[in-house]
Structure formats: structure tokens, C-alpha cells
Specification:
heterodimer; A: about 170 residues; mainly alpha; B: five-stranded mixed β-sheet; globular
Chain lengths: ~170, ~450
């Protein structure tokens, strides 16, 4: 079924010859980055993809109270859904994974809030609001200072405590 | 042997040589014995029983039947063959629907019984408005409407999909008494039809700097996972059809990424965007959720592979063996590393093993049904299966997994996920009264 050798095939793709294009149906429509900007919400750990905008913990606190506390509890202490503050050191499978004790990259916090939260209205927050909530949660966890501003430059520089806590399971698959 | 089914007796099958302890018979007994063996097996159920009652027509045979529906559904007598739901009222949390392996046979999971996990419900996607974008480190970013994708060359393949958290109750320090559906129900197998991802990447072109792709769904949380480009160019598929019909909503309608043999969550459903990038995105599900913690506190990252595994579905907890005699032990085996090469079955807690028959054809990265004939003598038995794959991997024991990964100190809820990627041996005890229990060997 799938008999082509990936490496050889990758080399062919890299050449990107017009002959190769001609073989296929070519029914995709070209789209330029401006047209797909609203969907292009991927963020990489080095900060690639972080949008313009900024926010502080003080700006994030009232947004959290209004849009997040109903599930994650006042001041992030947990409620119907997980706490976003605290967490004992990870030691085994019964340890509760939290932002502070487990998440390796702060960019994941911005990415996940922006794409998936609040639960009932995902992708309804402005980028400034997402930066502010990110700043609020990081500050609650004392991973950043109370007055630190989070933006595309500062967020990727936040060092998360468990950054080096991972072992790649099958390095040969990557 | 000159015999006919009519003169079968209990003695005939008793002559069949045991292949391993506690009544396991040679998997080829059926082939060799042919009709004689079949007669022997059938024979047992009525040897010694009272003569059958005279036959008469039943009511349903004496009147025209029911209306023929436009879309068929199982008999009303099969109403119990359903998935179990972890979140039936759609509260704001993940919903799991588990496959009833003990009520199915063969290797294909019917579409309505294929397991699903939805992190924020199933979106109600209009296929005419859905489209797939491929962009990032490509030569030409392209958008594909669904109807355009329908014109591409397609391929079909049998493939299991298994949640990385399937079988998590086996990390419990004590065996949790639950059905095979509750314990292993987050794995299913279907024939998927769609377009090779490499076919579409051929049209966009791939920048040599691209090492990963980020796949994203059109569901509420825009679920996103990073996939190495090597897998994308190997056997990844944009799946449009499941067992011949369009994907079920819970399985990603109208299209999903299919990564044969890899962690279910990476097979992104409701697929709407693929971005080629240089590094993984470290999305929530890869950075946090599917990173199982090891003893000492480090965690595995990028587990990806669903490793070689098997479990017995017949018999399994919740079933009763009504009387001593002949039963077929059967189950499913699969490996994310390729084809299943061998399954061994034990009825005596692993002291001796008989090789099971594998249902042909054996597909790569798909459920393989194994079967072995068994004569239960009415005494206690302990059933296990163990699988090997063509890459030479062998299914580990539970003790081996616990040694490497740990176990809980308290018994977790059966629906909990204390860890992930359990592919160890499953053990069922047969009690004297015929009850089947979950035990640890």
C-alpha cells in the first residue's frame, strides 16, 4: 500500500520540480499568508508565531475573575477544572501535573489559552487579553514578577522549572 | 479418520492432543480435523443433554417481516452492544466512548462502535464549507476544499487507532474488576480510505528546513499536535472514509489525519490546517497531557508509538462459562511497528503456551484476530495472551512495565488515567463457577 521510500521521496519533494506538480490533480488553490492569518495561530517554543500585543498580571486579574475563575477557581486554585497555580514537585505517576511543576515552555500557556479557552467561547479573547492572562498565571506561580509585561519578546524567555524534565521516548522516530 | 458428524462422541475430541497446559489445543486442530473436529465441538453441547424438542415454526416465520429501512441498524435484540460513555451529559470536560470488544468479533470495529474521545464535543461541520490548508515551510501554500480532495487518487488501508491512555487501569496497584470494554475500550480498527499526505505535499512542495508539521482541527479547542515530517512522508493519510462511509462525526468528519500505529490523539480529527515548521510546537497535548511521568519525576516526551499488544476478548470479565467443555479463546493483537507475527496463549498462568491461529490476512498496524481452541475442565484457569510483531518486539509482562514505569499506590477510578502507553499482558482468571475475573499474574 505504502511502498515509496520516505527518504528518496523527501528528496524528490525538496526538488519540487514542475514535472512532479504536473503529475497530480493540482486542485489546491494558492493562498497567501494574509488570507490565512486568522487561522495561523501556531506558536513555537522559540516564540515564532507570537502576535503583536502585550499584557501584565494586573491587567490579567480581572479578566481571569470574569472568564476563568468559574472553572479554575478564585486565584487559580482550582474548581470544577484544574488549578492553574501551585503543584508539588513531580515524583511519580500520581503527582499532579501543573503549569509550574511540569509544563516545559511558557509559550504553550499562551497557545492553549488562545486556541482553546474560555471553554464555552474559544478564540474570543484578544491577543492583549491572552498576554495578560498568561502574565497573570505566570506571576501567580511566581515564575515571573508581578509587574513583568508579557509580549512576543519576553514570553519565550520565561524559563519554566521543568524545562529539562523530559526524555524523548523514541529519538529515532523524530 | 473415517467419521461423520453423526457419530461424533465426546471421546473423539478428547483424543485431540493438548498443546499446552490446562486444556489448550493445537491451533491447527480445526484444519486437520475438518468436519470431524467441527462435529466434535458441536457434539459436546448436546452429548448427554436431553433430546431436542420437535421443531416448529416461530411467529416471525409465519408473517411478513418488518419494513426495510434506508439506513440499516442492528437487530433490536442487540441493544446492549453499545459504547460506554464517560461524560453522557456533555459537561465541560473530555468525553470518552469505549468499544465493547467482548460483544464484537473479527477485526473491524463498526463505525458506530469505534471509540471516540472528544475534548469539547463533536463539531457539526458542513462539508461544503470545510477546507484543508497546507502552509508554512512549503513552496506553495495551498487550500483544498473537500470536493477537490475527493478527486485525488485514494488509498485504503486497515489501521487500528488507539488512545495513548488506553489500558491505563493496568497501572493500578490492584487489578480493577471491569470489562474488557472498560479496560481496553479506547482502541478500535477500521478500513480508512483517503489521500496520502505525501500526495498533497508533492503539490505544495516541501522546504528542506521543514522537520515537523503542526496539524490542527476545526473543533472548539482547535486541537493541535506536532508530527515529524518523516512520518508525514511515510504512511500518513488524510482519511475521508471509515469502513466505506464518510467518517463518523466522533472520528473527525469530514476528514482526519491518520498516522498508522501512532498515538490516537495525534490523528487529528476535523483536520483543517497543516503547517510545516522547523521545531515541534510543544502544544498542550504533547507538552503536558501525553507525557507519562516515570519513577523519580522525569517524563517521557514524544512517545508516539503504540507498541505491540494483545488481549483476550472471549472469554473476558462479565462473561460466565456455563459448563465445562469446549470454548474458543480469541482476542485482538496489534502493533504500531507493523504486522503481528505470533500470538501465544496460556491457560495456566504462563507456565506453558500454545501458539494461536492468526486470522489471515494479517495487516500491518491493524487488529489481528487470534484464536485457540480450549477445553475447560471446570477447574481454575488463568488465561493470558502475548504478541510478537514482525519487527521482533515482544509484548512485555505487566511486571516489566511496572518495573520501568511504576504503578499507583491507591486504586484509581477505572476511567482514570494514572499513566499512558500500557501494552503489557492482560490476565483473566477462570473461577470454578465459570466466572471470569481480572487478575495480575
Amino acid at each position: 500500500m505504502f511502498t515509496r521510500k520516505p527518504l528518496i521521496f523527501a528528496a524528490l519533494l525538496a526538488l519540487g520540480s514542475s514535472a512532479a506538480f504536473a503529475q497530480g490533480p493540482n486542485l489546491g488553490k494558492p493562498i497567501d499568508p494574509a488570507e490565512l492569518a486568522a487561522w495561523d495561530i501556531s506558536i513555537l517554543p522559540d516564540g515564532t508565531g507570537l502576535p503583536p500585543g502585550s499584557g501584565t498580571s494586573a491587567q490579567g486579574a480581572p479578566i481571569y475573575a470574569q472568564k476563568c475563575a468559574m472553572c479554575h477557581g478564585p486565584e487559580g486554585k482550582g474548581g470544577a477544572n484544574a488549578a492553574v497555580v501551585g503543584g508539588a514537585p513531580i515524583k511519580d505517576m500520581e503527582s499532579v501535573k501543573t503549569i509550574a511543576n511540569f509544563w516545559p515552555y511558557a509559550t504553550t500557556l499562551f497557545d492553549y489559552i488562545r486556541r482553546a479557552m474560555p471553554w464555552q467561547q474559544p478564540r474570543s479573547l484578544t491577543n492583549d487579553e491572552v498576554y495578560a492572562l498568561t502574565a497573570y498565571i505566570l506571576a501567580l506561580n511566581k515564575l515571573t514578577g508581578e509587574n513583568d509585561t508579557m509580549d512576543a519578546k519576553t514570553l519565550p524567555k520565561v524559563k519554566m522549572p521543568n524545562r529539562d524534565g523530559f526524555i524523548i521516548r523514541f529519538p529515532d522516530k523524530i | 479418520m473415517e467419521t461423520t458428524p453423526n457419530n461424533r462422541s465426546k471421546r473423539e475430541w478428547e483424543k485431540l492432543q493438548a498443546n499446552a497446559g490446562n486444556g489448550l489445543l493445537d491451533r491447527r486442530a480445526f484444519l486437520r480435523g475438518g468436519a470431524a473436529m467441527a462435529g466434535a465441538m458441536m457434539g459436546y453441547t448436546f452429548v448427554g443433554s436431553a433430546a431436542a424438542e420437535p421443531l416448529a415454526d416461530d411467529a416471525w416465520s409465519k408473517a411478513p417481516g418488518n419494513i426495510v429501512p434506508a439506513y440499516g441498524a442492528p437487530s433490536r435484540f442487540e441493544k446492549n452492544v453499545v459504547r460506554t460513555l464517560s461524560n453522557p451529559n456533555s459537561e465541560p470536560r473530555t468525553s470518552h466512548a469505549r468499544t465493547p470488544h467482548h460483544l464484537l468479533n473479527g477485526t473491524i470495529t463498526p463505525n458506530g462502535l469505534h471509540f471516540t474521545i472528544s475534548h469539547a464535543g463533536n463539531p457539526d461541520i458542513d462539508p461544503d464549507k470545510h477546507r484543508l490548508v497546507i502552509h508554512g515551510l512549503v513552496k506553495r501554500p495551498l487550500v483544498f476544499p473537500l470536493d477537490a480532495l475527493g478527486r485525488y487518487p485514494m488509498v485504503s488501508r486497515m489501521t487500528f487507532v488507539e488512545c495513548g491512555g488506553n489500558s491505563a487501569p493496568f497501572f493500578s496497584k490492584e487489578p480493577i474488576q471491569a470489562s474488557v470494554q472498560a479496560l481496553h475500550g479506547l482502541a478500535s480498527c477500521a478500513e480508512w480510505t483517503g489521500i496520502r499526505l505525501s500526495t498533497l505535499l508533492e503539490e505544495t512542495g516541501v522546504d528542506p528546513k521543514a522537520k515537523w508539521l503542526v496539524a490542527e482541527g476545526a473543533d472548539a479547542p482547535a486541537l493541535s499536535r506536532s508530527v515529524p515530517i518523516t512520518k508525514a512522508l511515510d504512511d500518513a493519510m488524510i482519511a475521508l472514509y471509515q469502513n466505506g462511509e464518510r467518517l463518523m462525526p466522533g472520528n473527525g468528519y469530514p476528514m482526519r489525519l491518520l498516522l498508522p500505529g501512532w498515538e490516537g490523539n495525534m490523528n487529528v480529527k476535523f483536520l483543517r490546517r497543516i503547517k510545516l515548521v522547523e521545531q515541534p510546537a510543544m502544544s498542550y497535548y504533547e507538552a503536558r497531557t501525553y507525557a507519562p511521568i516515570l519513577p523519580g519525576g522525569k517524563a517521557y516526551q514524544f512517545y508516539f508509538l503504540q507498541e505491540v499488544k494483545s488481549f483476550i476478548t472471549h472469554p473476558s470479565p462479565g462473561m460466565m462459562l456455563k459448563e465445562p467443555g469446549f470454548y474458543e479463546i480469541s482476542g485482538v493483537a496489534y502493533s504500531g511497528n507493523g504486522r503481528i507475527s505470533k500470538v501465544m496463549v496460556s491457560a495456566d498462568r504462563g507456565q506453558s503456551w500454545a501458539q494461536a491461529a492468526l486470522q489471515e490476512p494479517v495487516h500491518s498496524k491493524a487488529f489481528t484476530r487470534f484464536r485457540v481452541p480450549w477445553r475447560w475442565d471446570g477447574g481454575p484457569g488463568v488465561l493470558q495472551s502475548r504478541a510478537w510483531d514482525e519487527a521482533g518486539n515482544v509484548q512485555p509482562t505487566r511486571a516489566q512495565i511496572v518495573a520501568a514505569r511504576g504503578e499507583t499506590t491507591k486504586v484509581p477510578p477505572v476511567t482514570g488515567f494514572p499513566s499512558q502507553h500500557y501494552n503489557g499482558i492482560t490476565t483473566w482468571a477462570i473461577e470454578r463457577n465459570g466466572e471470569v475475573k481480572h487478575v495480575y499474574a
